[in-house]
Design goal:
The complex is a heterodimer. Chain A is an all-alpha fold. Chain A is globular, with a radius of gyration of 17 Å. Chain A folds into two domains: about 70 residues, Rna Polymerase Sigma Factor, Chain: A (Orthogonal Bundle); about 80 residues, Arc Repressor Mutant, subunit A (Orthogonal Bundle). Chain B is mainly α. Among the domains of chain B are: about 40 residues, no CATH class; about 180 residues, no CATH class. In chain B, helix 1 packs across helix 2, helix 4 packs across helix 6 and helix 9 runs antiparallel to helix 10. The chains are: A mainly alpha, B mainly alpha.
């Protein structure tokens, strides 16, 4: 990968990676750090990374760094608890997007990442498996369960749309 | 059937289990009516039996493979675009026919996330990179090789510069390089500088003019070798004559370099060539290479390592008046600053290491001590 291809990669995929990480971490500064770390690693290894696979490489690196970050800080789990408490005082909701965000926060880290990679970036099961280190069957099962959980949350009595 | 107070329990149990025939049941009922104290016992046995309960099992939980769960999985895969075309077409047909399937599909579609494109990375400029050029690591042996090459280059450059300076200050060499036309003038100059006598000039001019064969066939192009060592400048080939001259006529101006006065005097005299040729011993005046070069017509002169002070400083006319010897002052060309420095270093090394050369066996530039 040349310098020009790298900078082109920044223009094309920086927003996507940032969006993916920000939705998971829900912390802007941490998400910036993760994205910068991913691009720094891409720059260092630019000789070995094919330009056609730079997006997949970026998401893989960013995902791994994000998992490391979550394990270190445990910030996401704390925020999830806060959101859950805050949601209790509110009555029935009819905002689909907000309900879906809440339902997404109820998922585990892996399932949430899988759903995002599928819906935001349109990756196939095989590509998601390469990014997250899972096999295709695992991706399929995790995604299936995640969908059913989201569906169950949406159709629950307090969230009837 | 004979029922009495001794065997009624057996008939009561068969009655409760509905194992008696109609006549048997009639006989039991008649016996209870005749013995009312045993009626309570029959009722107790009848209450101890279980009555069947109406229970409806939810079969939907057992029908995963072929119904709702299977449909959900297929609809999820459809949403994830992981199905082949045939299955997709079947599912669309099913959703068109079955409202429940269409509702399920609609519900699953609501679980799809939509990317928020308003979220962008704020510091994208900080991610841009620019290559600053790659620096190759220098190993010690590369540095050493570079230093050696640099040293050789410097040494060669200085040597060439010194040689060029030495040759550029040699007017005779410059004059000879002009070609045949300049030959006569060069000869005149050298002879004129040899001696103040006009007689020599006249002789030389006369010899060159009267003898038309005294023509230069080619210019002299090389006046010294790379190391500045002496050699006789390839004098212009002269037909029928051996013309030898010094490359530095300036040095001939000083006839005091171990040259007997009488020899110089002979130059200015007519018909003195024979005297000079005979009076000067060949071994002292001219070395054999020079003589051979001069004696053979139509041949280029050979290199001469002439250390004889006589030939270094004197242009000698041989018996043939047209024979002029050109001899380069090799002492002067040898003595460059760098050369003297190297010689001093060599001497110091030889003294300190107690190296004695010339007595051993030399093989490929190395010398093995004989003792």
């Amino acid at each position: 990968m040349t310098e020009r291809e790298y900078n082109q990669c920044v223009n094309l995929y920086a927003d996507n990676v940032y969006r993916f990480i920000l939705k998971n971490l829900r912390h802007e500064e941490d998400a910036k750090d993760v994205v910068q770390g991913a691009f720094e690693k891409l720059w260092i290894n630019r000789d070995t990374v094919d330009n056609d696979r730079c997006k997949s490489y970026l998401f893989t690196v960013a995902y791994n760094q994000m998992i490391d970050h979550i394990r270190k800080n445990k910030r996401v789990s704390l925020r999830e608890e806060f959101n859950e408490e805050a949601r209790g005082s509110v009555g029935p909701k009819h905002d689909t997007k907000r309900i879906l965000e809440e339902a997404l926060s109820k998922l585990g880290e892996t399932q949430r990442s899988l759903v995002m990679l599928k819906d935001y970036e349109g990756y196939s099961y095989e590509e998601i498996g390469r990014i997250t280190g899972l096999n295709e069957s695992q991706v399929k099962v995790y995604l299936h369960r995640a969908r059913l959980q989201l569906r169950a949350y949406i159709v629950s009595p307090e969230n009837v749309i | 059937m004979n029922i009495n107070r001794n065997n009624y329990e057996e008939f009561f149990l068969l009655y409760v289990d509905n194992e008696l025939s109609a006549a048997g049941r009639k006989a039991v009922e008649l016996f209870v009516q005749e013995n009312p104290d045993l009626q309570a016992e029959l009722l107790t046995l009848q209450e101890a039996t279980l009555t069947p309960v109406s229970f409806v099992f939810d079969k939907s939980t057992l029908l995963k493979a072929g119904s709702t769960a299977d449909l959900q999985e297929k609809l999820i895969l459809l949403g994830d675009r992981e199905l082949d075309k045939n299955t997709i077409a079947e599912l669309h047909q099913l959703m068109n026919a079955d409202a429940a399937a269409a509702d399920e599909w609609h519900l699953l579609q609501q679980t799809r996330l939509v990317p928020d494109l308003s979220v962008v990375f704020p510091g994208k400029q900080s991610l841009y990179r620019q290559e600053t050029g790659r620096v190759a690591g220098m190993k010690w042996w590369r540095i050493a090789a570079a230093a050696v090459l640099l040293g050789f280059g410097l040494w060669g450059g200085i040597s060439m510069y010194n040689n060029s300076m030495a040759t550029s200050t040699d007017p005779a060499a410059v004059a000879r390089t002009k070609g045949a036309g300049d030959k006569q003038a060069g000869t005149q100059t050298s002879i004129a500088q040899n001696n103040d006598s006009d007689q020599v000039d006249d002789r030389t001019n006369a010899g060159a003019q009267t003898n038309p064969s005294l023509a230069v066939t080619g210019p002299v192009t090389n006046s010294s070798d790379k190391n500045g060592k002496n050699k006789v400048i390839p004098a212009p080939a002269v037909k029928d004559n051996n013309l030898v001259a010094t490359t530095q006529p300036v040095t001939v101006e000083k006839p005091t370099n171990n040259l007997p006065k009488s020899y110089l005097d002979n130059i200015n005299k007519k018909n003195s060539n024979e005297i000079a040729a005979t009076s000067v011993p060949p071994a002292e005046s001219i070395n054999s290479g020079t003589l051979i070069a001069a004696a053979k017509p139509n041949e280029k002169p050979n290199l001469v390592n002439n250390n004889d002070p006589v030939t270094n400083t004197y242009a000698m006319h041989t018996g043939n008046p047209e024979n002029v010897t050109y001899v380069q002052d090799e002492e002067k060309s040898k003595r460059t600053k760098l050369g003297s420095l190297l010689r001093k270093v060599k001497r110091v090394v030889e003294r300190t290491a107690n190296i004695k050369t010339g007595e051993g066996l030399q093989i490929a530039g190395f010398e093995i001590a004989a003792k």
